[in-house]
Write a structure and sequence with these properties.
It is built from eight helices and nine strands. The chain is an alpha+beta fold and 280 residues long. Strand 7 (225-231) and strand 8 (236-242) form a beta hairpin. Helix 1 packs across helix 3.
Amino acid sequence: MRLFLYGFLVLAAYLPSATAVGRQVSSSDLLQRYMQARTHFLAEQEVQRTGSRIPYRAPATLYLEGDTVRAWLEGLEYQRLLSSLPDKLPLFTVTNWRKIPFQAKDTHAKAFSGTKWAFTGSSSLSPVDTMKTADLRSRFESVFGAPTLTLSDRQRPEELQREDIIQFEYWFLLNDSVRVAILDVNGPWDRGIVLAADQRVRSHLPVIKRDFLEHMLADAERAPFADYYYNVDLQAWYLTGYDGASFFDERIDRPDLNDRRYPVPRTVEPEPTPSANEPN
């Protein structure tokens, strides 16, 4: 309020008499002159505060396309940073592999059961992740032979938790020491498999999946197989497999798991090719 009154008094001092100019001052002229007087007043205050000096700002660096000195200095800094980095870790490569057969499972059971696992599931669009599990099982049979474990190797499968119901497991040793397991988790009607490896090689799981599993299956043919599978939701047993011509799933009575480890694959004999001398 005090500032407003001061400005108004300054404005009144500058205003000429309405009689002297022969006309009455309008409200718009009064407002404009007040604003000019206030501007002068604030300017005088700022001059008194700063001593008529303009505050300085820090210098700004201008970068030009032809600034070769800057590029040279940045190159030196880049080389310095590179020299301070530790040596690159050796890349993981699969040099050899060995499947653990059913007959040797007891020898490796303690080591595999005590392994702390890292897992990778169906998280890509590779054939291993998108192919039906039954199809993968058939190709595993062709490349690796029979699984290390099947459901019939578990005692009283009906009493297992859902996550422990598996159709098959393959155990491997990569590079003579890295334990790897391949298994299904949702039975023959799902897609993909689960790849598990010692968690010490967790960061190398994508390499193991690509250079071992996908490489081995790249040109794999299907082979006949047959497995038992127990559906927890339906509490029903199934015979599932591939007979050389088509995949099959049959609901069956509870099998005698003491009779054999897994059912003998049934096969379809290919039709004979007609001889050139035989009539069509």
